[in-house]
């Protein structure tokens, strides 16, 4: 018989108090990765007001800790440059815990819905080859078991594992391919925490405080319909699967989500921006937050996908964010593109350039809308990341311009001196321009490195 989650944690803490032993949250285990060159927090539970010691092998140092009368303890220890393996020993009156094979490196939290959760075993390109060659002992994997909670929790169910063909095949493929590239370039250990859940909307990953501050987001959330795979109850996945990590130092976050918010796409920039901001506030760290723009797909509704993609593009206004475009590696019949290699690689290249200051001569974005200028019956559209702007050999498609009434018409588009010129015989006085706006639109505008231009509207 399975215990209700609340009863499980009640029993967990009851056993801890009765034994009065030092107890650690599950994120601290053998094989873990700690964030390099930072003051990382170690924390847990023990007998109220108990004194015990913690030994860290990387600096051969011992610190004394005293638990509060709430049976909790927390202390910060400095970590060195990347390396390992190391050992941490917790030595108390009732018990001793020894954690071994600890690496110091870069830790990334990976979250979102099914495209982040999607593993090699779920079917990816070159599945057998990728699994067979996934022997990377300096990449460590932590998968968070799916749970919900009404209030923020202190612990999750999961354990660190060394990346191998046996462990990689059931882990997030996008996160793995990200780590493989970053580890190759940095030559340091990488720790990945996969806390994702298929079909989840952004609202379930967002703290309750956001909805208290922005009641319009509560109204927008009412447009999300229940599904058979995951709850849509606000904040419940944040409470159970994100909040327990807010004391655990990380380098940054990877995010692959948005498909489940096409029903309320117009509000996505706000909910997404506030979610990111709230996470950073909880960690007290403006860490990088890199995400994937959803791919074109037939949602059965004509424009929601385009609106959502544009909302994701607009979220780049938030500092220290990055977006990987995927419209060129999709199929509109499958919401789960099997090419997870390029998605992970594009996220890794953004991180390597923006966060790790490598690849400075490499373009990591597709063309992004910069400005639109109306010149007579023509619209001149400028892009950033536009070096070598080109089509795929055909005429440029999927541009539309609107008239004074707000009606949209297909436009002819051409390239001239690195800008796009668009006009329509049906529109004499253009007011706005948009590109690849339908849910299923797969554009054919790229820059010289072959990255696709993002959906946008100038409105």
Q: Key features?
A:
single chain, 459 residues, alpha/beta, Immunoglobulin-like, Rossmann fold, 3 domains, 11-stranded mixed beta sheet, 11 helices, 23 strands, 28% strand
Structural summary, described in words:
It is a single chain. The chain is α/β, with parallel strands linked by helices and 459 residues long. It has eleven helices and 23 strands. The strands form five sheets. Strands 1, 3, 4, 6, 7, 8, 9, 10, 11, 12 and 13 form an eleven-stranded mixed beta sheet that branches. The protein has a four-stranded antiparallel beta sheet with strand order 14-15-20-19, with no helix packed on it. A four-stranded antiparallel beta sheet has the order 18-17-21-23. Strand 6 and strand 7 form a beta hairpin. The chain is elongated. 45% of the residues are buried.
Short account of what is shown:
With 459 residues, the chain is an alpha/beta fold. The protein has eleven helices and 23 strands. Strands 1, 3, 4, 6, 7, 8, 9, 10, 11, 12 and 13 form an eleven-stranded mixed beta sheet that branches. Strands 14-15-20-19 form a four-stranded antiparallel beta sheet, with no helix packed on it.
* Helical residue percent band: 10-25%
Do you know the CATH topology of the largest domain? Rossmann fold
Separate helix tally: 11
* CATH H-level homologous superfamily name of the largest domain: SGNH hydrolase
| Average pLDDT, all residues | 95
Secondary-structure-derived class: alpha/beta
How far do the termini sit from each other? 56 Å
Round the Cα radius of gyration to an integer and report it: 24 Å
Give the total of domains.
3
Report the sheet with the most strands, covering strand number, pairing sense and barrel closure.
Answer: 11 strands, mixed
Low-confidence stretches: 7-18
Could you say what the CATH architecture of the largest domain is? 3-Layer(aba) Sandwich
- Note the beta-strand portion: 25-35%
GO biological process, one term: carbohydrate metabolic process
Keywords: Hydrolase
InterPro entries: SASA, SGNH_hydro_sf, SIAE
Domain Sialate O-acetylesterase: 106-350
